[in-house]
Amino acid sequence: MNGSKLDLFSKNGILVPKDVTPFQAFSGKGMTFQLQSYDWNGCACVSQLTMRAFFGLMKMDTLICTPYAKDMPLLSYDYISALGRHTLMVEVYDTLVSPVDLSSMLTVKDNYQDLKDKPTKPAWYDSLKLPPTVCKVGNGTRLSAMATEMISAYLDIFASARDIDRRAKTSRNSAYVEGLIHDGPTFKVVSKMIGAESAKTLFRRFLFGTEQA
Fold it and tell me: Residue 76 is part of which domain span?
């Protein structure tokens, strides 16, 4: 399901694949991960991480867009399917230098109020979440449609986003990523599988692109 979301980026620009060796596939504790990472249009790192567990009974597809040359918020998409239950998370994080009008994403959010909200555990990064952020459960087809519309609205805004100094933008992005490394549930899981230093490289270089090879 996540592959179609990556297609939204390929339809709106050029995805240049990165050599993600040795992180293209890794596993542990009953989970198997596969990674792809791209430079998108020379202005953002776009990564895709898929996870399968419990013999395929649990699946998670993640897509992250970390802009570094345009003043846009960081976008994180997760779709989780487990034992017939479906969860969608579209998180929009404030890594902005200047405010951006995200009203079109809010319109999409409003159009799917029939889908049930899922409470999330409090986390340090909650203060960075912008209003379009959602966590929904329900019908898989409806959730996928919502995700497509949310990401499409994000890309429409991206098309007219202002250029930004890469150093200033990377500083904002890095603050968020280093926070995840210090206190993030996914980092803790991955670091137990591949080691803390390798996990740091994975996060900085390939998932978010805040560090260059």
Answer: 2-207
- DSSP-based three-state secondary structure for 2: helix
**Of 184, 190, 196, 187, the residue nearest 124 (C-alpha):** 184
- Whether the model clears a pTM of 0.90, i.e. scores above it, the answer is yes
pLDDT tens track for 153-205: 999 999 999 999 999 999 999 999 999 999 999 999 999 999 999 999 999 99
Over residues 83-104, the pLDDT tens digits come to 889 999 999 999 999 999 999 9
Whether 212 is in a domain gets the answer no
State the number of CA atoms in the 13 A half-sphere of 189 facing the CB: 12
What type of residue sits at position 60? M
- Cα 197 from Cα 53, distance rounded (Å): 24
Q: How many other CB atoms are there within 10 angstroms of residue 16's CB atom? A: 12
DSSP class per residue in 16-44:
EE---TT-SEEEETTEEEEEEEEEETTTE
3-state secondary structure 102-166: CHHHHHHHHHCCCCEECCCCCCHHHHHECCCCEEEECCHHHHHHHHHHHHHHHHHHHCCCCECCH
**Number of domains into which the chain is organized:** 1
Q: Per the domain annotation, does 213 fall within a domain?
A: no
What gap in Å lies between CA 35 and CA 150, rounded to an integer? 23
